[in-house]
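In the design runs reported in the main text, the only information available to the sequence generator was the tokenized backbone. The following block is the verbatim input for one such run; it is reproduced so that readers can re-run the procedure and compare outputs position by position.
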């Protein structure tokens, strides 16, 4: 190998971002293997490459029982330079591929939980490939949202769930169904989340259909729900667009289970009562008859997502089925007075809005007495008229 070969090696190393010393060491190791194929070659040898001139020498070695060098001599075969040049091309190409593979893996290793944007390069019933620039990401069928179709050359955001290091290079597995995708999208759209002013406490998702998120504010002056919704709903609309129209419900998080369950059942309104049994982890929810289907949701979706969001098993009952009142049962279930008052407050508010004049018992008595007296007076007058006649 001559100086021209060394210049080419340096150029390749600089262009691909590979350390020149690493390439030389890989070449030297490969040349040791090539040397040992020669007949009468020494059992131990070392290849020395001059980095300036490209001169290559094979130094044969004799070792003692402790593997110390006791004798060393130059045993470079004839025409070894030609063999070195051929070996150099193979080694450099292989080593560059290995370094690039390691570099790509290092770039994405530890990025599980991040969101990436790629271009759909291939899509079929088994998987979809996203071109991320230097690497491709794999979107398996199991991580694809139902009803979503990924058109070729379209841009798509996805959530990194795993980064594998394979012989063919790093394999990045992404998802469109993971709840983390929703959180990452809100983090992009809502500065308050990125600044840790607003936190996403919980997410319950049925990909492609509906998602519920519970949010909390670390600043009493910041409305967490309003921050995520944005002006005229602009922020949440961007998230829904990226999720291909998936509905998103944003509810305030609360450490009080009664309040939390009540909010999680949105869009159901006018919930009469929430009874929480701490031993069984069941929340019994009493709703007006006309709100029952809305609280349960289509195919039970709303109740199912609310249960996942809050961690409570939710039993929704119509007010008529519950006897129209649940005051006595509220004390029987393991609820505190504060929780019971919290559960009853909305029902009181509804009663005030729909207040109708009450009929008192004394009013009914007066009415009953007046009617017979009028009838008696009228009868006496008729009798007097008949007598005059």
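Verbatim output:
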């Amino acid at each position: 190998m001559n100086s021209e070969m060394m210049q080419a090696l340096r150029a390749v190393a600089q262009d691909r971002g590979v350390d020149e010393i690493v390439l030389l060491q890989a070449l030297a190791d490969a040349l040791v293997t090539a040397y040992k194929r020669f007949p009468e070659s020494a059992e131990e040898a070392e290849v020395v490459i001059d980095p300036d001139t490209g001169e290559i020498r094979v130094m044969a070695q004799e070792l003692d029982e402790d593997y110390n060098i006791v004798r060393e001599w130059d045993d470079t075969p004839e025409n070894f330079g030609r063999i070195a040049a051929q070996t150099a091309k193979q080694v450099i190409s292989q080593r560059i591929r290995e370094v690039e593979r390691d570099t790509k893996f290092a770039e994405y290793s530890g990025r599980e939980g991040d969101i990436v944007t790629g271009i759909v390069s291939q899509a079929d019933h088994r998987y979809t490939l996203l071109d991320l620039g230097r690497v491709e990401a794999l979107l398996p069928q199991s991580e694809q949202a139902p009803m979503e179709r990924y058109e070729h050359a379209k841009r798509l955001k996805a959530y990194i769930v795993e980064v594998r290091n394979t012989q063919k290079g790093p394999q990045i597995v992404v998802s469109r169904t993971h709840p983390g995708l929703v959180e990452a999208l809100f983090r992009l759209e809502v500065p308050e989340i990125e600044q840790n002013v607003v936190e996403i406490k919980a997410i319950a998702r049925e990909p492609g259909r509906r998602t519920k998120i519970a949010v909390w504010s670390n600043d009493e002056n910041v409305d967490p729900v309003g921050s995520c919704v944005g002006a005229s709903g602009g922020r949440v609309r961007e998230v829904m667009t990226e999720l291909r129209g998936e509905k998103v419900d944003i509810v305030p998080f609360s450490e009080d289970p009664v309040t939390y369950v009540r909010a999680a059942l949105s869009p159901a309104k006018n919930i009469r009562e929430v009874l929480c049994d701490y031993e069984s982890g069941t929340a019994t929810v009493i709703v007006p008859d006309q709100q029952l289907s809305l609280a349960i949701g289509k195919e039970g979706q709303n109740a199912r997502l609310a249960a996942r969001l809050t961690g409570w098993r939710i039993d929704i009952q119509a007010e008529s089925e519950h006897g129209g009142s649940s005051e006595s049962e509220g004390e029987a279930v393991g609820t505190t007075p504060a929780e019971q008052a919290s559960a009853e407050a909305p029902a009181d508010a509804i009663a005030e809005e729909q207040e109708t004049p009450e009929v008192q018992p004394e009013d009914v008595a007066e009415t009953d007495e007046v009617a017979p007296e009028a009838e008696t007076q009228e009868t006496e007058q008729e009798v007097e008229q008949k007598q005059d006649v």
